[in-house]
TrEMBL record:
Classification via InterPro entries: Glyc_kinase_flavodox-like_fold (IPR018193), Glycerate_kinase (IPR004381), Glycerate_kinase_RE-like (IPR018197), Glycerate_kinase_sf (IPR036129)
PANTHER family: GLYCERATE KINASE
Source organism of this protein record: Neoroseomonas alkaliterrae
Molecular function via GO: glycerate kinase activity
One GO process term, biological-process aspect: organic acid phosphorylation
Protein name (database record): Glycerate kinase
Family listed: Belongs to the glycerate kinase type-1 family.
Length: 390
C-alpha cells in the first residue's frame, strides 16, 4: 500500500504565528501520527503578514529591511520584497508590515487614529530603488483610513472645508472636502500597481469594511458609524476630484480598511483576488493533484471563512480535484456548520484548554501539533475500517 500523501496549506494565526510557523507545527503533529506519510507544505498568505517575504523567496528574490512610520506614528522595522528572475524591478509590499494590527498595542487600538502613512513611505522607498511595478498585499491591517495616510506620504493633500490638511486616521475622513493631487510624486505616473486582496470586502454599505472589521481594530459603535461616514465621504470626493466613480461597490475596495479603494483611486491600482497571486506563486493546484488529504488552518473558522479566507479558498480548490479537507482553528464559530458546504469536511479546534491569552499564544505551536496529530489519527482509523470492509 502506498504511503498517505498529505498537503499542509494553512494561513497564519493572526498576531500569534505566521503561516510558515503554523505549517511547521502541523507537520510535526502529522509525523507523530504517521511517520511514513509523504507531506508537502504550502503555507499561504492572503495579502497579510508574510506576503512580501513569501512571494520574494518563492521567486528566488530577496527581502530588504527598511524603517518606516508605524500606524501610530513612531517608526517600525518593515521590509520590501523584490521578485527574482525577470521581474527584478517588481517590489512586493505588505501593508501589514507598516500598518498592521500587530503593530498597535491592544490598549491603543483605535482605527480613528491609526494611519497608512508607512505604506506610502514603503512605496516611495521602492521608487527610490528603481521599482517599475509594485505588488501590494492587503490584509491584517490596523487601519481604516482608505489609504489617506499612504497618499499623504506620496504628496497628495487631503483638505477640510477650510483648506487645512486632515490629521492622521480614519476618524478625520468625514471632514474631507477636497483631494489635491497637484504635488503628488511625479514618478507615480509611470508606475504599475497591483493589489492582492480579499475582493469580497467592499468599502461601505452592509458588507462594508468598517461594519465588518473596525470593531476588531478597537472601534466602538459610534466609531464604526464615523468611519463608515468617512469612507462614504472619501468615495464621493474621489469621484468629484479624481473622476473615479463606484468606489463603494468596488470588489476589494474595503481591503485593509479601504486601502484597496485608495490605491485604485489615487494610484490607478488594479485589485486582484489574493488567491490569483499567492496560489500561482506556490503551485497549489499542482500540489493538490498529487495528494490524498489537505490540512489547512486559520486562527478562527466560522461562517465568514468561505468568503475569501485561506481555508475556504483551499477547500474550493481541493473540492474541484476531489480531495478531502480538514481545517484546524484556534476558535470555532457557532455558524461553523456552513463551511462544510464550501468543501471543508471537518474542523478541529487547536486550543487544548481555557487559559489566559498570553499562555494560549505561547502554547499555540504545540496545541496545533497535537490537534493535527489527533485529526490524522482519526483519518487513519477510518482507513483501517475501510480496509476491513474490503
Amino acid at each position: 500500500m502506498s504511503p498517505l500523501r498529505v498537503l499542509v496549506a494553512p494561513s497564519g494565526y493572526k498576531e500569534c504565528l505566521h503561516a510558515a510557523e503554523v505549517a511547521a507545527a502541523i507537520v510535526t503533529g502529522l509525523r507523530r501520527a504517521c511517520p511514513e506519510a509523504v507531506i508537502a507544505s504550502r503555507p499561504l498568505v492572503d495579502g497579510g503578514e508574510g506576503f512580501a517575504r513569501s512571494l520574494a523567496l518563492a521567486s528566488g528574490g530577496r527581502v530588504e529591511p527598511v524603517t518606516v512610520p508605524g500606524p501610530l506614528g513612531p517608526p517600525v522595522e518593515a521590509h520590501i520584497g523584490w521578485l527574482g528572475g525577470g521581474a527584478s524591478r517588481t517590489a512586493v509590499i505588505e501593508m501589514a508590515a507598516a500598518a498592521g494590527l500587530r503593530l498597535v498595542p491592544p490598549a491603543e487600538r483605535d482605527p480613528l487614529r491609526t494611519s497608512t502613512r508607512g505604506v506610502g513611505v514603503l512605496i516611495r522607498l521602492a521608487l527610490d530603488r528603481g521599482a517599475e511595478r509594485i505588488l501590494v498585499g492587503c490584509g491584517d491591517s490596523g487601519t481604516n483610513d482608505a489609504g489617506a495616510g499612504m497618499a499623504q506620504a506620496l504628496g497628495f493633500r487631503f483638505l477640510d472645508d477650510a483648506g487645512r490638511e486632515l490629521p492622521p486616521g480614519g476618524g478625520a475622513l468625514a471632514r474631507l472636502a477636497r483631494i489635491d493631487a497637484s504635488a503628488r510624486d511625479s514618478r507615480l505616473a509611470g508606475l504599475e500597481v497591483e493589489v492582492a486582496c480579499n475582493t469580497h470586502v467592499l468599502l461601505a454599505g452592509p458588507r462594508g469594511v468598517a461594519r465588518r472589521y473596525a470593531p476588531q481594530k478597537g472601534a466602538g459603535p459610534a466609531g464604526v458609524a464615523l468611519l463608515e461616514r468617512g469612507l462614504e465621504t472619501f468615495a464621493a470626493v474621489a469621484a468629484r476630484d479624481l473622476g473615479v466613480r463606484g468606489l463603494t461597490s468596488l470588489p476589494g475596495g474595503g481591503a485593509s480598511g479601504g486601502l484597496g479603494a485608495g490605491l485604485h483611486a489615487l494610484l490607478g491600482a488594479r485589485l486582484r483576488p489574493w488567491q490569483e497571486v499567492a496560489l500561482t506563486a506556490c503551485g497549489l493546484d499542482r500540489a493538490l493533484a498529487e495528494t490524498d488529504l489537505v490540512v489547512t488552518a486559520e486562527g478562527g473558522v466560522d461562517g465568514q471563512t468561505p468568503d475569501g479566507k485561506v481555508p475556504g479558498v483551499v477547500a474550493a480548490r481541493a473540492r474541484a480535484q476531489g480531495v478531502p479537507v480538514i481545517a484546524l482553528a484556534g476558535t470555532i464559530g457557532a455558524d461553523v456548520g456552513t463551511v462544510h458546504a464550501a468543501g471543508i469536511d471537518a474542523v478541529f479546534g487547536t486550543l487544548g484548554r481555557a487559559v489566559p491569552l498570553p499562555e494560549a499564544m505561547a502554547r499555540a505551536p504545540e496545541d496545533i501539533a497535537r490537534a493535527a496529530e489527533q485529526a490524522l489519527r482519526g483519518v487513519l482509523v477510518g482507513l483501517a475500517m475501510a480496509r476491513r470492509r474490503h
